[in-house]
């Protein structure tokens, strides 16, 4: 009975979300980009984490000439599906339209060194591999209780290592370095929090930065070359997670899900 | 306020100087007239200062007693430090050079000597005809003892040209000034750096044959207007205690205004920066190569002589291969002996947009050189830059490798890829915490249970003593359960009890008698009452089997119950470990 109820909820949910997705796609095709944005954002706020949704949202923001949110959503799509060629292509087009084509900040050094191999893996793949390796490790240990086959211990060790590496990979992909994209045309980055503080450097729309601290509407950002400073969060679109909607002044009620 | 600050600085420096013992001997002039009185001043600092021992100098009469003395004490590092100044009249009695040998003063119980002093003795009256002639005490007026001068490095300048101005307070050596107030002239029409003269420097200088302490304040002025500008009078007032006087006299001083003629600059070229002086331009950078899309830094240094606040950031020519931001930081002018020397650094962030070998064109900085009286354009060297393609650029396959440099144009002409219309089932993504926790913990728990089960099973298989003892009670219970169907229930009861005891202690069951059982249980320290119960039942069974007596059904039932209770009790005690 429980299985039936769960399956029903999943099927109904999938149907509902696919319906919203289709309506958003129709709105996009009809040129109603603001409606499409609201519908896609509705899916995201409902907890849908899907590379295609982020990709379509990126395209819609691009059509609205909102480079920052478009880049943020392409980055989201590429995070969920690194081999998403169309998203990569569209991201490059967006970056070429930015003022200084600032490179994205690199992950921390330890991640670059230890997890260089997982760049092209999807979070889902890493997660599944971690679980499979973990179960395999315990399965081999259990088998060894019954029948200590040759090399079983070493094979279990290898499975354990796989479980650790894919586990770390999965955790890292689930908790990535928080990226943000400048949405304001020009965004001063200051030496400290506060409007009265001196500007250290400037970000332009579409520039990608990492965030390591957030306090009272201010974020401490770092660029690809290590320049660091404080800027107002209202001028940034977070790549996430969490997948928050950037504030661009688009009326959110227009075309929402019914 | 500035006077108070100066006094505090002077007092602090003096206190530090007093911390060590020293003697300083000076004369109020280097050339003295024969038979005329001149002054020898002895300054001693330290603790517990005694009177100096005046040596006998051939050709020189030095008074035995000082004509003035002053002593000031202060606390330095919790020790009382003194500064004692004594003035002695002296008269030269022979012509020529006379050297006064080192004069010793007892300081802190030790005799400390000053440096020898040399005076030149000339005929009386000769000094008035010679530039270096000496003057008697009486010829030194208050005006000579304390006066002001203002010196400007130039009086004819161009607008914006640097003028170094020095304000000097001349105080006759050995004199002291107190409660003074200094009002520097207004710098209207000038841009002054610093806005007001800062901390002074001091130097001992002989001027007109008199030894002075010159206290100098310095300022650099840049005319902002044309025409004849006037640097107003410098006013000073305070109390003066001259070395030859015992009392302080009030003094008011003022300098004459300094007039400076300022000429306008010639018609400037279009790219004139506004700077006047002489400058050089150079560019430095973090590294010779850069990565496409990754900002790097370069700094433009402008050094030379001129007003630092009139130097704008140089403008770079437009380049299509990089974005050059506004200057990030500007360094403060360097404080050097040459006051109007300036070194400014403008730091720029450069973000290369296009890969390949690129060149940053030279930067022009046009200024007016007052010495050459013309506009000069300083240029930096063109800067070659190797821009490596970024990692992001490598990932996309939009154009072939040979045309990578034209990629940006290619992309800019393309439209974005279309949206996805068939994403497959879209579901909400729930929290994975419970699932991950279960997946992480359950296999470990299952393995633990399985391992315990396997270990137990192996023990039953390998440890017969343990297996017999573990199953002793259940075997006995099974035997007794079948007693009703047996033709010889007494034998069944007997064997059930001996079997239980044999299994419990891993001894052969066959041949166990009531006596054997009693001895075995006693050896294993079983409670005598419990052991007696087993023995009693066994003996009743033996009597029934081998004697004449028989057991009724009720008696047999009671014996079975008694045996079961005893076995369960013994099994429980063994399981608890109370007995072996």
**CATH fold-level label of the domain at 1-97 in chain A:** Serine Threonine Protein Phosphatase 5, Tetratricopeptide repeat
- Per CATH, the architecture of the domain at 1-97 in chain A is Alpha Horseshoe
Main CATH class of the largest domain in chain B: Mainly Beta
CATH structural fold name of the largest domain in chain B:
Immunoglobulin-like
User: How many domain units of chain B?
Assistant: 4
Which keywords apply here?
heterodimer; A: 258 residues; Serine Threonine Protein Phosphatase 5, Tetratricopeptide repeat; five-stranded antiparallel sheet; two-stranded antiparallel sheet; 8 helices; 7 strands; disordered C terminus; B: 580 residues; alpha+beta; Immunoglobulin-like; 27% helix; elongated
List the helices and strands and how they pair.
The complex is a heterodimer of chains A (258) and B (580).
Chain A: H1 2-29, H2 33-45, H3 51-63, H4 67-80, H5 85-97, H6 109-114, H7 123-146, H8 152-174, E1 179-182, E2 186-190, E3 199-204, E4 208-215, E5 218-222, E6 228-232, E7 236-238
Antiparallel strand pairs in A: 1-4, 1-7, 2-3, 4-5, 5-6
Helix pairs in contact in A: 1-2, 2-3, 3-4, 3-5, 4-5, 7-8
Chain B: H1 2-18, E1 22-27, E2 31-33, E3 37-46, E4 60-62, E5 68-76, E6 79-92, E7 96-100, E8 104-107, E9 110-113, E10 117-122, H2 126-129, H3 142-145, E11 146-152, E12 156-158, E13 163-172, E14 176-183, E15 190-193, E16 201-207, E17 210-223, E18 227-231, E19 235-241, E20 249-254, E21 258-263, E22 272-285, E23 289-291, E24 296-306, E25 322-324, E26 341-352, E27 356-360, E28 364-369, E29 374-379, E30 383-388, H4 391-395, H5 407-413, H6 433-462, H7 464-481, H8 489-505, H9 514-523, H10 528-546, H11 553-576
Parallel strand pairs in B: 2-10, 12-21, 22-28, 23-30
Antiparallel strand pairs in B: 1-3, 3-6, 4-6, 5-6, 7-10, 8-9, 11-13, 13-17, 14-19, 15-17, 16-17, 18-21, 19-20, 22-24, 24-26, 25-26, 27-30, 28-29
Helix pairs in contact in B: 7-8, 7-11, 8-10, 8-11, 9-10, 10-11
């Amino acid at each position: 009975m429980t299985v039936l109820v769960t399956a029903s909820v999943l099927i109904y949910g999938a149907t509902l979300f696919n319906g919203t997705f289709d309506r958003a796609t129709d709105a996009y095709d009809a040129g109603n980009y603001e409606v499409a944005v609201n519908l896609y954002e509705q899916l995201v706020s409902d907890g849908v984490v899907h590379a295609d949704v982020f990709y379509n949202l990126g395209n819609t923001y691009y059509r609205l000439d909102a480079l920052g949110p478009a880049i943020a959503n392409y980055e989201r799509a590429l995070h969920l599906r690194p081999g998403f060629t169309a998203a990569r292509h569209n991201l490059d087009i967006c970056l070429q339209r930015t003022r200084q084509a600032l490179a994205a900040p690199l992950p921390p050094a330890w991640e670059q060194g230890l997890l260089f191999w997982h760049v092209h893996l999807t979070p889902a793949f890493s997660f599944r591999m971690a679980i499979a390796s973990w179960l395999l490790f315990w399965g081999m240990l259990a088998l060894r209780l019954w029948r200590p086959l040759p090399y079983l211990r070493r094979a279990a060790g290898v499975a354990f290592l796989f479980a650790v590496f894919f586990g770390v990979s999965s955790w890292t992909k689930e908790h990535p370095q928080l990226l943000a994209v400048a949405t304001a045309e020009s965004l001063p980055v200051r030496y400290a929090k506060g409007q009265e503080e001196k500007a250290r450097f400037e970000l332009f729309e579409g520039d990608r930065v990492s965030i390591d601290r957030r306090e009272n509407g201010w974020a401490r950002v770092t660029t690809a070359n290590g320049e660091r400073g404080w800027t107002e969060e209202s001028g940034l679109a977070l790549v996430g997670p969490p997948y928050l909607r950037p504030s661009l002044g688009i009326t959110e009620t227009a075309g929402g899900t019914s | 306020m500035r006077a108070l600050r100066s006094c505090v600085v002077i007092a602090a420096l003096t206190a530090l100087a007093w911390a060590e013992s020293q003697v300083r001997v000076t004369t109020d002039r280097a050339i003295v007239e024969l038979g005329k009185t001149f002054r020898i001043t002895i300054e001693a600092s330290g603790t517990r200062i005694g009177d100096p021992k005046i040596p006998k100098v051939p050709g020189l009469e030095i008074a035995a007693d000082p004509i003035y003395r002053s002593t000031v004490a202060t606390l330095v590092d919790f020790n009382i430090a003194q500064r004692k100044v004594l003035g002695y009249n002296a008269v030269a009695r022979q012509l020529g050079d006379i050297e006064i040998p080192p004069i010793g003063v007892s300081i802190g119980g030790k005799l400390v000597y000053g440096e020898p002093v040399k005076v030149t003795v000339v005929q009386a009256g000769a000094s008035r005809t010679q530039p270096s002639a000496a003057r008697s005490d009486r010829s030194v007026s208050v005006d000579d003892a304390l006066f002001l001068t203002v010196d400007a490095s130039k009086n004819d300048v161009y607008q914006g040209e640097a003028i170094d101005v020095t304000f000097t307070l001349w105080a006759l050596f050995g004199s002291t000034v107190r409660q003074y107030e200094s009002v520097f002239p207004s710098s209207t029409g000038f841009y002054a750096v610093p806005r007001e003269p800062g901390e002074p420097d001091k130097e001992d200088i002989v001027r007109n044959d008199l030894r002075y302490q010159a206290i100098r304040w310095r300022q650099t002025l840049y005319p902002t207007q044309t025409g004849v500008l006037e640097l107003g009078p410098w006013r000073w007032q305070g109390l003066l205690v001259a070395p030859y006087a015992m009392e302080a006299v009030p003094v008011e001083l003022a300098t004459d205004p300094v007039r400076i003629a300022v000429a306008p600059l010639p018609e400037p070229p279009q790219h004139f920066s506004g700077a006047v002086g002489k400058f050089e331009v150079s560019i430095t950078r973090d590294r010779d190569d850069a990565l496409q899309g990754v900002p790097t830094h370069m700094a433009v240094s402008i050094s030379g002589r001129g007003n630092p606040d009139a130097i704008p950031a140089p403008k770079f020519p437009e380049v299509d291969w990089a974005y050059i931001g506004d200057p990030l930081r500007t360094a403060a002018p360097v404080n050097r002996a040459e006051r109007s020397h300036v070194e400014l650094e403008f730091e720029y962030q450069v973000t290369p947009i296009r890969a390949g070998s690129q060149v940053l064109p030279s930067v022009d900085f046009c200024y007016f050189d007052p010495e050459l009286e013309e506009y000069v354009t300083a240029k930096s060297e063109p800067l070659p830059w190797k821009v490596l393609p970024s990692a992001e650029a490598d990932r996309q396959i939009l154009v072939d490798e040979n045309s990578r440099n034209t990629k940006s144009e290619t992309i800019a002409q393309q439209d974005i890829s279309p949206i996805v219309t068939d994403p497959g089932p879209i579901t909400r993504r729930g929290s994975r915490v419970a699932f991950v926790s279960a997946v992480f913990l359950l296999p470990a728990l299952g393995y633990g249970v399985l391992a315990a089960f396997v270990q137990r099973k192996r023990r039953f298989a390998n440890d017969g003593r343990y297996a017999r003892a573990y199953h002793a009670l259940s075997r006995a219970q099974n035997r007794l359960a079948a007693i009703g169907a047996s033709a010889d229930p007494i034998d069944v009861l007997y064997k059930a009890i001996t079997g239980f005891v044999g299994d419990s202690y891993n001894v052969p069951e066959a041949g166990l008698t009531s006596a054997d059982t009693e001895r075995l249980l006693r050896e294993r320290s079983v409670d005598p009452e419990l052991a007696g119960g087993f023995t009693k039942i066994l003996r009743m069974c033996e009597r029934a089997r081998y004697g004449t007596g028989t057991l009724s059904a009720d008696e047999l039932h009671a014996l079975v119950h008694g045996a079961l209770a005893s076995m369960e009790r013994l099994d429980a005690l063994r399981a608890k470990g109370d007995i072996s």
